[in-house]
Structure formats: C-alpha cells, structure tokens
UniProtKB/TrEMBL annotation:
<dbReference type="InterPro" id="IPR041090">
    <property type="entry name" value="DUF5578"/>
</dbReference>
<protein>
    <recommendedName>
        <fullName>Ataxin-10 domain-containing protein</fullName>
    </recommendedName>
</protein>
<dbReference type="InterPro" id="IPR011989">
    <property type="entry name" value="ARM-like"/>
</dbReference>
<dbReference type="Pfam" id="PF17741">
    <property type="entry name" value="DUF5578"/>
</dbReference>
Length: 512
C-alpha cells in the first residue's frame, strides 16, 4: 500500500518546488537573453523535465502575451522556428494524454493550456500560422475538443476549450486558404459533437462562430456545415436520435437556439444575394441546410456519420416545426417562425409549409368534454397560434413575387383557409399588436385579390381558383364598412382592432 507523506512534509516539498520553479521562470525571462532567447529555450527544452518546460511556456506568455510578431521574432532570434517546432511536436505527442492542473508548483494551469497560449502568440505571424496548419495541429485541437461522450461532460476545462477555439478562430479568419485547412470532414464532425455536448453559452458561441467561418466561402465544407447544424436541432428530439445508431443527443436548448439564429442569419444572407442578383424563379432560392431540386451539387457526406447525413425535406421541415411549436421556450418559437417564413420563399416549399401550418390550425375539437386534458387543449391552442403567426408572415412577406402570390392565394381558396385565418384573428390576444395587425394585412391581401379577380380578371395572372367565396366570407365576417377599409385603405393600428372586434362580434352573433 502506497504511503502518504504527512501534510507538513508535502508543504515543505511544494515550497522548495515553487522556489525552484520561480528560479526557472526568472532565468527564462532574463533580459540578457534578448535576440537569442529561443536558442537558450531550445537547449533547456531538450534536456529539461516537464515542469521546467512549463516555466519556459509561462515566460513566453508573460513576455509576449501582448506582443506583435516583429517584437516576438526580435526577442527570440533566429532559433524561433526551432522552438515553435518543439511546441507543435510536444502537443502532437501528448494531446491524448494531457494532465489536469494540480495544486503543485507549475500545475496551476494545465500543460495543454500553456501550449495553446504559446501557439496563439506565434500564429500572429503569417509564417507560423502556415506552419501550424501544415503540421496537422488543428486536427489534434479539434480532437481534444470532442473528447467527451454522450454521458460524460467534456474532458477539457472551460478555459482550455475557450483557448483552443479562439486559436482555431484566429487561424480560420486569417484567409480562405487557412479556413479550408482548419478542419476536414472528420474535424467538422468533432466540432459538431463539441457543439452538441457544450453547456456553457459563451463557449458554444465560439464553436458556432467557428462553424460559420469554416463554411463561409468554402463550397466543399459549407453544405456539410449547414447539414450538421440542422441535425443538431433534430438531435434534440429523442425519436430522431433513436433513428441513427451512434448519434448523440444535443444537450442544451441554448445550443439549439444559437444554431437556429445562425441558420436564420445565413438564410437571410442567401436571400439578399438571390434578390439582389439577376431575376430567377424562386424555386432556385437556396435553402441553408436543405438540397432541393435545381440546387448546385455539393459535397457527399460519409454515410456512416449521422450528423452529416443530408436532411430530407420532411426532416428539414420537421426541424423548423420543432422550433415553431416548442412548448416552453419562446425564443425557439420565434426563430422557428422566422425560419419557416424564410424557407417558404422557395416556391418548392411554399405550399408544403402552408399546408403543414393549416393542418395544425384546423386540428380542433368541436366540443370540450369533461374528461379532456385542459393542459393538452392549451398546448394545442398555443401550437395553432404559433402556426397562425407563421402563415400570416408568409402571406405578407416581402419581396412578394407573382409566382409565390399565386401559389398562396390558390391554396387558401382551395382549402377555404380564409376561414382559418379569421379563426386565428379571433384567437389572437387583444394586446398582441403585431399578430392582430399582420393578420389584418393578410386578410386585406385576400380581399383585394378577390375584388381584383371580379373586376379585372386579366390582372389575376396565375390565380385559377375562384375567389368569390373568399371575398364574400371576409365581407360577412367584418361587415361592409370594414370591408371597404380592407379594399381601399392602408390599415392602421386602430383599424386592425376594429377588424378584430367586428370578426369577434360576427362569430358571437352566429352562435346565438
């Protein structure tokens, strides 16, 4: 049995070791070494124990934590590349067996963190950034990040994960060549796994930023990054994880929210590029995370990796509806609503999204029985309101093209979905100014389309379904005077609530 030294003896040993470490640090920081410091450090490195190497790394950090590459090279001298090679070699040999920090002298910060800090200082110079990516160290760093499992938190400390991600971000932002060399498909999977496992918001934001940069202007990796982000959302659902052997469940809703916001930002960028370019059919509008007919060919994902398995249209829409119908997180519902609205601008998806939302809105019980679950009824109504908001946003979205307008109006007329919109208006809370105003604008669009088809049918290009019943139902629901407002005036906030009151009064009168 191993004997444990008394506390007093351990304290004495640590005091001696601390003094020795301070001497090593002072020697490494000696001002007289200026111009040849790296040469001395290399000699020390090659024959020194591990604890002495950490003193050298700490000296580098204290001397040049805020230095530029010129000052660094002037101090280190001609042997700087040799010293840099020592750092990368040691990291490559030890990153799978790094030790946790201890209370012993030299152990307050892990060796891995000292190495990452040292490399971060060197890569301020372009030549060292090139040497770093060519040495394959970026692959070792991404592997370090993902060394947790589905049930065990990440093995790295938060400070280590943050330092590694900042180093990788610095390299990725150095230019397209560096960005493409930061990680391959395997490294991307490790970053996605890191994102899935991360529970600290500040660190998951760094991972998210790195994923976005890796996919930016990189046609080989961008489709895989986008696919992985959609899968992170889907793998928050237990049933989706169960479908893929080896898949991990996304731990945190915060991560899902960050991914949703990133997807929305990227989709808005794609939309801006599409509408600012040459006029094309909207079925060619790129949807981030989904490959539709007519889309340019992308990278083929390894079939064995769940996170890089391309999402089908059904899976993609399932991810958006999961966000839009979330029961507890309002922010997720907002992002889901925005993503559905953006995706519906591709005319291959417009009708599918509207039908999914209308199906949810039309799922009603005519009578509430005593045995019905009140909580389930409240949940269903919340889902209906969420889908109603998405439908209204799709109807009034801009820019609106003739092709998409025709799809929307034809579908509403065929489904008699104007009645569903009137129901949504009556369900809306009086204090929800945006919901009432937007729904009123959607009804105005339908009323004007019906009136236009009746008076000037030649202007109703693409609308092949009769809108007579649509116009009549809206007029009966709001009354003749309000209907005139819909047809000939811009709707103000006051008029929106007048429309709401009229619709509710008509419904109440019909029940009497």
């Amino acid at each position: 049995m191993k004997k444990t030294a008394p506390a007093g003896q351990r304290s004495d040993k640590w005091t001696v070791a601390a003094n020795r470490q301070s001497q090593r640090l002072a020697a490494a920081m000696d001002p007289n070494l200026f111009g040849r410091r790296a040469e001395v450090w290399v000699a020390t490195w090659d024959k020194a124990p591990k604890v002495a190497r950490t003193a050298v790394l700490e000296a580098l950090y204290q001397l040049h934590g805020a230095s530029n590459s010129s000052d660094l090279e002037a101090d280190l001298g001609d042997a700087a590349p040799l010293f840099f090679t020592r750092l990368t070699s040691w990291l490559r040999m030890t990153y799978k067996a790094f030790e946790r920090p201890s209370d012993a002298p030299g152990g307050a910060v892990s060796i891995l963190l000292w190495l990452v800090r040292a490399l971060s200082i060197f890569v301020r110079g372009a030549q060292y950034a090139t040497l770093l990516v060519e040495s394959g160290i970026t692959g070792a760093l991404t592997e370090c990040l993902s060394c947790g499992t589905a049930t065990v938190p990440p093995a790295l400390a938060a400070e280590e994960r943050s330092a590694i991600l900042l180093l990788l971000l610095y390299i990725a932002n150095a230019g397209r060549v560096y960005r493409e060399m930061v990680c391959d498909e395997e490294g991307l999977v490790e970053l996605l796994h890191t994102m899935q496992q991360e529970e600290r918001e500040d660190i998951s934001m760094l991972v998210m930023d790195l994923l976005v940069v890796v996919g930016q202007g990189n046609p080989r990796m961008a489709p895989l990054v986008h696919t992985g982000l959609v899968r992170i959302i889907l793998f928050r659902k237990e049933d989706e994880v169960a479908r893929f052997p080896g898949a991990l469940r996304t731990r945190s809703e915060t991560v899902v929210l960050q991914v949703a916001r990133a997807l929305r930002a990227m989709q808005m960028t794609k939309e801006l590029q599409f509408y600012s370019g040459a006029a094309e059919s909207e079925h060619l509008l790129t949807i981030v995370g989904l490959r539709l007919a007519g889309a340019p060919p992308g990278s083929v994902a390894p079939p064995t990796e769940p996170l890089l398995t391309a999402a089908t249209t059904e899976e993609y829409l399932s991810a958006l509806l999961f966000l839009n119908l979330h029961d507890t997180n309002t922010s997720l519902r907002v992002e889901g609503n925005e993503l559905l609205t953006l995706a519906a601008k591709n005319t291959q998806l417009t009708a599918r999204i509207l039908n999914l939302c209308f199906d949810t809105m039309d799922d009603d019980h005519l009578v509430i029985a005593e045995e019905d679950d009140v909580a389930a009824i409240a949940t269903r109504q919340r889902h209906q309101l969420s889908c109603g908001r998405a439908v209204v946003q799709i109807i009034i979205s801009t820019p609106m093209t003739k092709e998409r307008r025709a799809i929307i109006i034809n579908l509403i007329a065929m489904r008699s979905a104007h009645l569903t919109l009137l129901k949504y208006l009556r369900m809306s809370e009086g204090g929800d100014l945006a919901a009432v105003g937007d729904c009123s604008k959607a009804l105005q669009l339908l009323a004007k389309a019906a009136d236009e088809q009746q008076r000037r049918p030649e202007l109703s290009a693409g609308v092949y379904v009769s809108l007579a019943k649509v116009g009549q139902s809206i007029r009966e629901a709001v009354g003749d005077s309000i209907n005139q407002v819909l047809l000939f005036q811009e709707i103000s906030e006051e008029e929106s609530f007048a429309i709401l009151r009229a619709a509710r009064a008509t419904a109440a009168a019909a029940q009497c």
